[in-house]
Write a structure and sequence with these properties.
Blueprint (H helix, E strand, L loop, with lengths): L3 H19 L3 E6 L5 H13 L2 E5 L2 H10 L13 E5 L4 H12 L4 E7 L2 E4 H7 L5 H33 L1
């Protein structure tokens, strides 16, 4: 039988994983094999700048945590895996996707976006979406264009009426 202290430590790690997944809107599981220490440090810094984090856990502990959360991603827990997470749905996906362009060693396995399992293909599509701030800027620009165009049309119409009189 296993040592109770070791079991308690493992349960603490399982609880930590569950807490991180439950409190995150964007979770990405990726393979980091082949990265140097400097590249890992670069990735960690890039994730931190995007208000995201990542941590490496044993697959067996992640398996238990995801099983407790009724999330079926056990098929993706083979080989070394790291878990990136953030309250922003897309931030960790974008950072890791951009990092993959420079460092071919890293590969996306699976993700959770708003608690829904997302395949690596879908994650790559999501990585192309502009940030929340970018989308809000686009929306505001579109909303401002309507009154601007209306003002221009009304001004041209007023000038035309003045010319006719």
């Amino acid at each position: 039988m296993a040592n109770p202290k070791i079991l308690e430590q493992k349960q603490l790690i399982i609880d930590e994983i569950k807490e991180k997944v439950e409190n995150s809107n964007g979770v990405v599981l990726f393979d980091y094999r082949g990265l140097t220490d400097a590249e890992i440090k670069e990735l960690r810094l890039a994730l931190k700048e995007a208000n995201s984090e990542y941590k490496v856990y044993k697959n067996t502990l992640m398996s238990r945590a995801f099983n407790d959360l009724n999330i079926d991603i056990l098929e993706y827990l083979n080989g070394p895996s790291a878990l990136a997470y953030s309250t922003d749905q897309i931030a960790p996906i974008k950072v890791i996707s951009n990092f993959m362009k420079k460092h071919k060693a890293i590969t996306l396995k699976v993700g959770l976006v708003d608690k829904e399992i997302t395949t690596s293909e879908k994650l790559e599509q999501l990585a192309t979406i502009p940030s929340r701030e970018g989308l809000l800027t686009m929306l505001a620009g579109g909303m401002l264009a309507i009154p601007k165009d209306l003002a221009i049309c009304l001004d041209l119409y007023a000038k035309k009426l003045e010319e006719n009189n």
